[in-house]
Specification:
GO terms for molecular function: dioxygenase activity; nitronate monooxygenase activity. This protein has 342 residues and is of the alpha/beta class. The chain folds into 2 domains: 222 residues, TIM Barrel; 90 residues, no CATH class. The chain contains 12 helices and 11 strands. The strands form 2 sheets. The protein has an 8-stranded parallel beta barrel, surrounded by 6 helices.
Length: 342
């Protein structure tokens, strides 16, 4: 199956949804105009803010998608949380912040966002963190939306196929930002992306999109030869002119001394790949699992540190191919990632 299985895609490239700022309406539009498929990141946005972004992208007349965090909370041990909160509060004191002493929970307005997307459908909706209920998937498909599920293992792929999704994103452990795993407490085997694509394709008959550390046209060509219908790229677009990547994040990506990425749950309580800094060094061992509790605990600290220009306390999400990230218009970056493009 070719990239034509994706709504309106002319080239086999998808702009990954990057919550927290990088995935702007402008980036989605630029990706669509370049022939790819861009995804708005609904995570951490209110339904009203998401609706406004959808309206902006619709006005450009290009196909696009929306990505949602499927509710799959990771419980946190209250005592472990309080110990970690005390450590975080010491860091926060220098900014005059008071962090949550007790765990905070939230489902990111999932039901309201689903209701809005069914009432006013978009071409594609993808999910990460968990597998939504069959009724959610059926409702979106009846509305004419292509439903895409992000998976990190064969077991997740089979469960998604049985639930009735249209397409899968096979995300390797090399991906930047949060792992999409359904089981953050037990990460899947770290298969190379080629092996993961092959294993998922052997297990289910759905079309598969490859994701995770893809940063060159040769790597994109490799996953297409392995049977993927497209490659999803995120870190490669963090320095695009249309991206909303923060200045401190951009500077860190360009810093030649920041060579390594680490998989850590210290920022949000859910495993995510980032450039290493003092926060990942100092708190990796102390942090409990617990999402979204740790996200809400460290969020004010991370925002204050970013405003103060302190990259050592900020989540610097990045995939394993971050050294290949280049500045420029998104269309130029995508052209450089398209196999055979001139």
């Amino acid at each position: 199956m070719s990239s034509s299985a994706l709504p309106g895609a002319a080239i086999p490239l998808i702009a990954a949804p990057m919550a927290g700022g990088p995935s702007t309406a402008a980036l989605v539009i630029a990706t669509g105009r370049a022939g790819g498929l861009g995804f708005l990141a609904a995570g951490y946005k209110s339904p009203a803010a998401l609706a406004a972004e959808i309206d902006t992208v619709r006005g450009a007349g290009i196909p696009f998608g929306v990505n949602l965090f499927a509710p799959n909370p990771v419980p946190v041990d209250p005592q472990h949380y309080r110990r970690y909160a005390a450590l975080m509060q010491r860091e926060a004191d220098r900014f005059g912040l008071a962090l949550p002493a007790e765990p905070v929970s939230d489902d990111d307005d999932f039901a309201a966002k689903i209701d809005a997307l069914i009432a006013d459908p978009v071409p594609a909706v993808s999910f990460t963190f968990g597998l939504p209920a069959a009724g959610v998937i059926d409702g979106l498909r009846r509305a004419g939306t292509t439903v895409i599920q992000t998976v990190t293992s064969v077991a997740e792929a089979r469960a998604s196929a049985e639930r009735g999704v249209d397409c899968l994103v096979a995300q390797a452990h090399t991906a930047g930002g949060h792992s999409a795993t359904f089981t953050p407490q037990r990460m899947p085997d770290p298969l190379p992306i080629i092996e993961l694509v092959a294993a998922v394709r052997a297990a289910v008959s759905l079309p598969v999109i490859a994701a995770g550390g893809l940063s060159t046209a040769a790597e994109v060509a490799d996953v297409l030869r392995a049977g993927a219908i497209a490659a999803q790229v995120g870190t490669a677009l963090l320095l695009a002119e249309e991206a909303g990547t923060s200045a401190i994040h951009q500077t860190a990506l360009r810093d030649p001394s920041r060579r390594d990425t680490v998989l850590t749950h210290a920022f949000t309580g859910r495993p995510a790949r980032a450039l290493g800094n003092r926060f990942t060094d100092d708190y990796a061992a102390a942090a409990p699992l617990g999402y979204p509790a740790l996200h809400f605990l460290t969020g004010p600290l991370r925002r204050a540190a970013a405003a103060a220009g302190d990259a050592e306390l900020v989540h610097l999400w990045a995939g394993s191919g971050h050294r290949q990230a280049r500045s420029g218009p998104a269309a130029q970056i995508l052209a450089g990632l398209t196999p055979g493009a001139r």
